[in-house]
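Why run this: before we spend reagent on co-expression, it is cheaper to look at a predicted model of the complex and decide which construct boundaries make sense. The entries below are exactly what would go into the expression plan.
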Amino acid sequence: MNLAELKKLKDKTQRQVALREGGKKYRVIVSMGTSGIAAGAREVMTTMLDEIEKRGIDDVEVAVTGEIGLTDAEPVIRIEETSGEKTTYAKVRPEDARQIVAEHLEKGVKVEKLAVGKPKDKE
Amino acid sequence: MFEELSLHILDIAMNSLAAGARTVEVAVLESRRHDWLIVRVKDDGRGMDEATLQRVIRQPHTTKRSRKKPIGLGLALLRQTSEMCGGTFHIRSAPGKGTSVTASMRLANIDCPPVGNLTDTLVALSAHDTDVDVRLHYRTDTETFQFSSQEGRNHEPRRTKKTQRQDATASRTA
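The model came back. Tokens follow.
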């Protein structure tokens, strides 16, 4: 950790805050409780932010929450759409996070192999 | 156990956010000269009464009622880390008056974790609610750095003589 690194923080938060403004189509919630953090949730989140920025997707907001009760499946992220549709992804690694951004958030196609729970039409 | 102190900070500060804090102050003092690494997370959340505080210190604690097996290891983990590294651990809290968690470690101790990526920790914390002001005060023997997430939000940081001086010093050292 040094001063130069900390200076980047200002830009990063500024961009992060820009992602939180207005009603966005997607809301990404990262579980950031003790077990999530231990499993690598912070890296998953920063990877997602990085990928969202790289692809220039602006219809997404990214937020964090505490323990959600899926301790053994961490890191867990949930994507909520304005339509009310919710998708939960479990055991997300940073490279999975990139894939989720590319497919779910950019193209609107769920990444079924990482999703938990049943798809809605099969219930 | 987390491999970085910044992950402990994220974990503890998430509790502050859960307690409805509007301001979360993270202070890190890293002094090689005095052989101390001290971290404090202070918030203006709802705080805890004496009974809760005692419970928090003694055993794994969580505010989630639905859970069969409580997790609530965050504070216990930080306490373990600091005590293992020749330091101390304190919590001060009162209902309505917020909570302050302070942990210290001997930098020279072989088990002392690196500070790690504070940037990512602050980015994650700022993502919770943009109205919450997440502040960082980071000091080493030679440098001081201050940050507030509200600075990023307003795009126009509040300029005081003190911050101007610090900016000038920072640009000289950079």
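Helices of chain A lie at 3-18, 34-39, 41-54, 94-107. The first helix of chain A runs from residue 3 to 18. Bring this page to Monday's planning discussion.
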